[in-house]
Write a structure and sequence with these properties.
The complex is a heterodimer.
Chain A: H1 3-18, H2 26-51, H3 59-74, H4 84-87, H5 89-107, H6 112-132, H7 134-137, E1 143-144, H8 157-179, H9 181-198, H10 203-229, E2 231-232, H11 234-237, H12 240-253, H13 260-279, H14 284-299, H15 304-322, H16 334-337
Antiparallel strand pairs in A: 1-2
Helix pairs in contact in A: 2-8, 2-10, 2-12, 2-13, 3-5, 3-6, 3-10, 5-10, 8-9, 8-10, 12-13, 12-14, 13-14
Chain B: E1 3-14, E2 17-28, E3 32-36, H1 43-50, E4 58-63, E5 66-67, H2 73-78, E6 81-83, H3 96-102, H4 118-130, H5 146-157, E7 164-168, H6 176-191, E8 195-199, H7 203-209, E9 213-217, E10 220-225, H8 227-230, H9 234-242
Parallel strand pairs in B: 3-8, 3-9, 6-7, 7-8
Antiparallel strand pairs in B: 1-2, 1-4, 4-5, 9-10
Helix pairs in contact in B: 3-5
Classes of the chains: A mainly alpha, B alpha/beta.
Bound molecules: adenosine-5'-triphosphate (ATP) and magnesium ion (MG).
């Protein structure tokens, strides 16, 4: 990892860890909790939708699977410390990954466009199950979880800190993928899958791996969410809007980059929650989403970070090319090798 | 010399078109064999079948003495059968160096090793030097000229130490200097033991480089022999002129 990268990552997480101790208002910490949830989910989605170029529309199903797993595990249980559900999170991640594995094997035989349809079909299937398998999910009555016995003054803090840790995991996994042959293989898959397969790249393997890790993380976020809400209903636990939000965030910040999904989540979720808080909720944010999507499509088809990076790269190259005594511009391209590869095929 | 590659009565039908029609041919180990024929005679389709990109409707393909009909292209590649495409296919979002590394045919366990490790770097550096791509090693492949991309695609499939390389029109759309470079690389690699099967329309290139020459027409072999015999063969003349 470059020194600047370590500094950036370290600084970011120190700031995140310090934030709740500044005596922020409850609504602000609540907002941050949701920003973190979406930052984790967008980072997770990015592994599949960004790097591999397979735009999953089914991730909300795994959010729901995580939420219901958590609810089923702790429904009616008595908590002593309140940390028990957090300890169960790795198990919930595993449940998500294991369910995701066959889904990936089936749906990723197809091409990106068919994949989007297959995954959204899976989402509606899970939603139907959540509504109708009443013996398990309670149907539209929902399912309750025990309320965490945390002090009221800092109730959100444990949730917040657990989410910070999960974001660190998601970003480290992303970083690890980018710096290993997994990321190299995923970019090859996105660029030209047939060619990649033809030169011996483990195409199916990396796709299924990326998908399983991605939906496992998403399920974990669902688990934290269920515990945070203490009551879950099928229309919110398995909500296509979650998928849409996560996709938008990743597109806005920049697909196949480390920081893009996080940036997108901060902008969109903080914006939406602030609007909701100030304007008193309503469906206003849906219009905002539509607007943001239009803006992205028109102005930044590749997202904020890749666009910025491209500008910087071109400027640096122009500067070197103009400077005397530099033999050729080829050397200046090191910026291009930072694995923040430009946009995908979708 | 024994046959490294055998094609036996291979057929491929697209709708009503018999693109490859009971085609049989052999490529001898150590040779630089040319595969020529008029446009649409089925050369690329045959390449796709040999390399596993397309399933055949009939017939058999053997490689190194084993039946490999319908085998997965990635597995064939790792077993030593490489190819390039008529329209060069490289990964534009990867750097030139990474395009080489990704083509090394690494196994599962290597997935968890660095993107470009020291061993990868050393291996790729040899090819980068040989193909004079070292100065552009860190550029994205998207930034290369078309000729350089063809060269890169060729260099990349050598990363896996293949036994047989199939080149589909290596000189098409490439400037004369680059054509000479390509020729030199084929020769030196052939001297190092790699067998080539080359589809090419540039007949002077074929005459200089290839022996034997196989002529395909309407999906089947109509001639196989020394390059100097090709031009006077009545069947071949008929295929090109009568087409
Ligand atoms: N995927 C396909 N679907 C339908 N027809 C096809 C397909 N691929 C090839 N063909 C047809 O099969 C025949 C052989 O095509 P092929 O590309 O193999 O010829 P070729 O010898 O490589 O020609 P060229 O010299 O122009 O590259 C042509 O008539 C072509 O139109
Ligand atoms: Mg062709």
């Amino acid at each position: 990892m470059s020194r600047a990268g370590v500094a950036r990552g370290g600084g970011f997480f120190l700031l995140l860890l310090a934030l709740p101790f500044f005596g922020l208002a409850h609504w602000v910490v609540n907002l941050l909790v949701f920003v973190l949830m979406f930052a984790i989910m967008a980072s997770a989605w990015n592994l599949v939708g960004g790097f591999a170029g397979y735009p999953s529309l089914g991730h909300a199903a795994f959010f729901g699977i995580g939420a219901y797993s958590m609810a089923l595990m702790f429904h009616g249980a008595a908590l002593s410390s309140g940390y028990e559900p957090f300890v169960a999170l790795p198990l919930i991640g595993l449940v998500g990954a294991v369910i995701g594995w066959p889904i990936a094997i089936i749906s990723m035989r197809t091409r990106a466009d068919v994949f989007a349809i297959v995954t959204i079909t899976f989402l509606f299937m899970i939603q139907t199950l959540a509504f109708n398998v009443r013996s398990l999910t309670g149907g539209s009555q929902g399912l309750s979880l025990p309320v965490a016995p945390f002090p009221a003054a800092s109730y959100e803090r444990p949730f917040y800190l657990v989410l910070v840790a999960m974001l660190a995991v998601a970003m480290l996994l992303t970083f690890g993928a980018m710096r290993s042959k997994i990321g190299l293989s995923l970019v090859a898959v996105r660029a030209d899958e047939d060619k990649a397969r033809g030169i011996g790249v483990r195409v199916s393997g990396v796709k299924v791996l990326a998908f399983s890790v991605s939906v496992g993380l998403t399920a974990m976020v669902g688990g934290v969410w269920a515990y945070y809400e203490t009551f879950i209903y099928p229309q919110f636990a398995v909500d296509p809007l979650i998928t849409i939000a996560v996709v938008l965030m990743t597109f806005l910040g920049g697909r196949a980059t480390l920081w893009g999904p996080v940036l997108g989540a901060v902008i969109l979720e903080a914006g939406q929650q602030t609007l909701a808080y100030r304007l008193g909720g309503s469906q206003f944010y849906l219009i905002a989403y539509a607007l943001v999507f239009l803006v992205i499509m028109l102005l930044l088809p590749r997202g904020i970070l890749p666009t910025l990076e491209e500008r910087i790269r071109l400027r640096r190259r122009a500067r070197v090319a103009n400077a005397p005594d530099t033999p050729g511009a080829a050397r200046t391209a090191d910026a291009g090798r930072v694995a923040l590869a430009p946009g995908g095929r979708s | 010399m024994s046959a490294l590659l055998g094609v036996d009565a291979v057929t491929k039908v697209f709708g009503g078109v018999r693109a490859v029609d009971g085609c049989s041919l052999e490529v001898a180990e150590g040779s630089v064999t040319a595969l020529v024929g008029p446009n649409g005679s089925g050369k690329t389709t045959l390449f796709n079948i040999i390399t596993g990109y397309l399933g055949a409707d009939g017939g058999r393909v053997t490689f190194a003495g084993r039946d490999v009909t319908g085998r997965d292209p990635g597995r064939l590649y790792r077993d030593g059968l490489s190819r390039t495409f008529q329209q060069a296919r490289v990964f534009p979002q990867l750097s030139v160096l990474e395009n080489l590394v990704v083509a090394a045919g690494y196994g599962w366990t290597r997935l968890f090793t660095p993107r470009v490790g020291r061993a990868d770097r050393e291996r790729a550096d040899e090819l980068l030097d040989e193909f004079r791509l070292a100065p552009v090693a860190d550029l994205l492949a998207a930034e290369l000229s078309y000729g350089q991309r063809k060269l890169l695609e060729f260099a990349a499939v050598l990363m896996s130490s293949p036994r047989l390389v199939l080149l589909d029109e290596p000189t098409a759309g490439v400037n004369p200097v680059m054509i000479e470079t390509m020729e030199r690389h084929i020769r030196s690699r052939n001297a190092a033991g790699i067998t080539f099967l080359i589809v090419e329309h540039d007949m002077t290139f074929v005459m200089r480089l290839c022996d034997p020459v196989i002529v395909l027409d309407a999906g089947r072999q109509i001639f196989s022999g020394r390059p100097d015999e090709v031009q006077n063969n009545p069947l071949v003349l008929d295929a090109y002129l009568g087409g």
